[in-house]
Amino acid sequence: MASCLSARKVTKRFGGLIAVDSVSLEIPERVILSVIGPNGAGKTTFFNCISGFYTPEEGDILYHGRSIVGYRPDSIAAMGIARTYQNIRLFPGMTALENVLVGRHVHLNAGMLGTLLRLPGTVSEEEKAHEEARRLLDFVGLAGSGDTLGRNLPYGDQRRLEIARALASEPGLLLLDEPTAGMNPQETDQLMGFIERLRDELGLTVLLIEHDMRVVMGISDLVAVLHYGTKIAEGPPNVVQRDAAVIEAYLGTGGNGNGQP
Amino acid sequence: MSDLRQSLRTATIVGSVMVFVALIGALTAFADEPIVSGVLTLTQLILLLGAFAAGYRTESGRRGREGAILSMGLGALSGAAAMAFLGVLAVIVDLVNLRSVLVNATPALVEVLTLDRGLPAGLGVLLAVGVVGGALGAVWNRIPGWFRRELSLGGAAVLLIGILRGKGLDPWAAAGLLAAITLGAYAYSSYGSSILDGYRRFERGNESMTRLVLWTVVAAVLLLLPQVLGVYATSVVDLVGLYALMGLGLNIVVGYAGLLDLGYVAFFTIGAYVTGLLTSPAASTHLGLSFWVAWPVALAAAATAGALLGIPVLRMRGDYLAIVTLGFGEIIRILVMSDALKGILGGAQGIIEIPGPVLGGFTFIKPQHFYYLILLGCLAVVVVSRRVSDSRIGRAWVAIREDEDVAEATGINLVRYKLLAFSLGASFSGIGGAIFASWVHAVFPNSFTLLVSINILSLIIVGGIGSIPGVILGAFVLVGLPEILREFADFRMITFGALLVVMMLARPEGLWPAKQRRRELSADTLEA
Amino acid sequence: MRRRAAGPIDFTKLVVSGIGVAMLVFVAWRIVLTASEGTYGWPTYASQIVFGLAQGGIYALIALGYTLVYGILFMINFAHGEIFMGGTYIGFFVIEAFAESGFLQTHPLPALLITALTAMLSSVVLAIGLERIAYRPLRKAPRLVPLITAIGASLFLQYAFRGLFGTGVKVYPDTHLYIAGIDLLGGRYDLGGVTVRPIYFVVFLLAVALMLALWLFVQKTKMGKAMRAVAEDKDTAALMGINVDRVIVMTFALGAALAGAAGVMYALYNKQVTHTMGFFPGIKAFTAAVLGGIGNIPGAMLGGFFLGLAESTFPTLLGLDAQLKDVIAFSLLVLVLIFRPTGILGEVLSRRKA
Which residues of A touch B388 (CB under 8 A)? Predict the structure, then answer.
């Protein structure tokens, strides 16, 4: 099976610090792959390299066989990679519906002329976009909250809205950065089911950063472990769980049991 | 005891502010501005309001509210103490000649401060004003809110009409007006909602009809306005319209896209000079083209300049952008004024003999003619603003304003959309420049200073950033009122400065907030 | 149209670099042209350099105020030019009084010292008031909000001074200070065809001395260390028991004191004082701060001197109209922001993302 994303010896440095050190990773289509590791292991930096916020110094990242290194974040988003953020980053002054509509940006074509003259194509495109956005809000369980401002939504809803915004671009690869952070066990369960639906119903490939081992072991098809910027293990969850190097990284060098901070 | 301290502390703040107001010459300037003829001048009203504010603040700062007499006493004390600052000022100014330093410390000031009764008798009157005003302020705090609102509406109406009449209102007329407006407002607040509900029900049944009637009325008022207003008032409205037009343009850049552009005047300059060069037979180009040819060129030139400036600066962080655009505005002004380009742009002499627009043999000359041109421009700009803001483009701008990095990761090309905002905003300013040039028939470099940019920025902030009706309201308040109240002209810039600070501290969403911000406010109150 | 990737070759970067290269080529071409004509000899350039150093010292002192505040609050104190103006203005009334009483003529040194101290104190009072009333309540507001407040405050201060003290131009009295027979402040000497004004040297040396004092303060004193800690991380500094509010007030005060001192020095050779005098030096000093790398103290000093020298020598060097002097500063600003957005000495601040 062809890889959705393949990272080849990706290295990112900040001054003297090597945040991501020659990490290679193959993500097949339609799987949930979790990246785990103690805090500061370079997980979010790796995400930022994929989504174009950082340009890695060495190595290459291929999306569907095409290199995306050096492209700006907006181009990478247009190629079909969408993401969420560790500390939720909505557009706080926009309504939930508008947030999702911004997510659809790459699929809309309206130009200045069409907008100013209200050309029929533009109008119908806009109507369809609204329809689609409402459908997505419904899908993530925010049907009644379309007119609420992002910042006024409850915490769990903000997380879901962020995912809806990412989904609105109809991505081929979804990067979720600690989506269950700050959620209670019930909400976490809901979200786990939701992420599995994304894979099974929408056929999405999901790359997940997660600290909660219950989530990682529960829904991941594959797990990769980062430690001090290097990949120390990779494979199905039950294999990685028994890997000596992983146990060493989590238990041996000051990490506590489940990797929680 | 703490009440007493609070009352004196308030008096100190109010007193210091009053002394400042006196020393910048405001009290002396407004002494000849009657509100109610023979009874109350604007200066006296300011004194009374100062004492009133001291009393009000004292009372609202109290923990307990018991004791009506005590509260009036504290208020009166605070008001009197605040006025005492002015009394001391009057004595000092009378004894020592400070005029070599403080230009407004004049005998006229003493006269005003002692309410024309001279020292020392006037001091007693001044303190009496403090006592009365302070006590009233304290009482004001204890009367029901609905009555306060209605009464202040009545008071504001008397003040505005009194000032506008120039010679003030007749005492009986003032009392009548106050009573009428207060009662009217009371009636409206009691029965208004049921009337409005009735209208809404009616409207729901006859939507297309009511809308037609509404728009017909609005259109008729807008079209007939200059016939009613006369030449001077129309020219004021023209100026307001011109500023509203440009304010709406800057609103796109600052309000929607969140890019603080302090060099907005540059595009106004470019629009005006391009029009001058193309239409004036006296310009170095000797083209003498028609206005109708010139304005699209002016628009295009301004939009291009916007894009050209945008390319290097738009990658900068917000506050760098502000300074660089400010610098750009100054560069354009210096270039226009310089001897180096005098051969083309006329240097300090500018370009003269710019003809008015000609339409089928009819020449636009009078303010009434330009009114329609400006109205058309404003309408076009409102339509463009509304349509763009409700579209993919407008959403991209707001997303950039809210969180640039996330917007980019969501697929928005930052440079393209920022450039678009910049050029669209610039093109509005360019049209403004074109109309301005043909209206005043000449362009001089001195018309295009940084203060124009600051004026426009102030009006969109005071009106409501990101809000179309807010910008128009802001233009009326900040451009229209100072033109009508010529006595205020000297205090215009200082008021703008203070307004910018106060608005940012107390009401950053402006007088007429944008839809989004209002929604957010109502949502917040729901939560509370 | 859709999904058109920008690609690793960035169009806007290309355009931007093109503009920058074109400007540099223009500068090089004009310099070669002027040099080959040889109209101006070394004496011209020497006197321009001396003036540039003095003017640069003034810019540097004001720029330090921008940089100090920016380093801690990440805001541009747009009203800093007015703080410079305010000190100069109040200083005028003091020195004028000394001149009228004859004290300035008999005891120039103490008179000047008192003038400078009063000016510095006035600037400090203005700055602290400004911080307390206008900036402190907005510390957590979005970035645009304090900037607009600062613009408002700048306008307010300008017109408050105009309202209080009138519209006329005030002129600092002529001052003379003889040391070893040389009039350090008012003298003009002819040295082989070049007019030399010792005041420029005095201003330059005083500016350097003040900067050294600031440098020592920031590096050696407890308050200086607290300032650096707050600049690094406000929250952590607060946890370590540093009174952040006090440090911020101190920062404003320090910057204002330097601006007030700069104001008196500036007025000693430039003479004229008006309510708008703070605008251009303020903007240019900000440019200097950006040139050197905003937030960076040595950078502000370097940027100030560089800008002063550029302004005084470039018009002749490039064969430009002297009226275009003010354009130079802004063009430099744009160039620096294109090629080195962090300034000459600025460290590469990693943009905080995600």
Answer: 112, 115-116
